[in-house]
Amino acid sequence: MKEIAYSRAAVRTLARMPRNLADRIRGRIRAYADDPASQAGNVRRLRGPGRFLRLRVGDWRVVMRDADALEVLHVTTRGHAYRD
After folding, report:
1. By CB atoms within 10 Å of each CB, which of 7, 25, 33, 80 scores lowest?
2. CATH code for 4-80?
3. Which residues contact 67 (CB under 8 A, 6 or more apart)?
4. 14-48, pLDDT tens digit by residue?
């Protein structure tokens, strides 16, 4: 299992959403860290520099970077996920 590091913005977003939804998102992130193939249908590489990944959880998107540790950068709704 890879170590998971959450950004300050991601922690703040998860704290403000309903607990059951936040737990579901954290569970999907943990599942990807344990075995990336388990979330193969929900994870895609994003275009552009930075080698970011997008994890889809319902109408929510998790933008992350997979390096030595899994860095969770943003947790946001589908409509706002890809804006600068």
Report:
1. 80
2. 3.30.2310.20
3. none
4. 999 999 999 999 999 999 999 999 888 899 998 88
Contact between 25 and 75 (Cβ < 8 Å): yes
CA distance 37 to 67: 16
Amino acid (one-letter) located at 31: A
47-64 pLDDT, tens digit per residue, is 888 789 999 999 999 999
Nearest to 76 by CA among 3, 4, 16, 5: 16
**Backbone dihedral angles phi then psi of residue 41, each to the nearest 5 degrees:** -75, -15
CA distance 47 to 69: 21
Chain length of the chain: 84
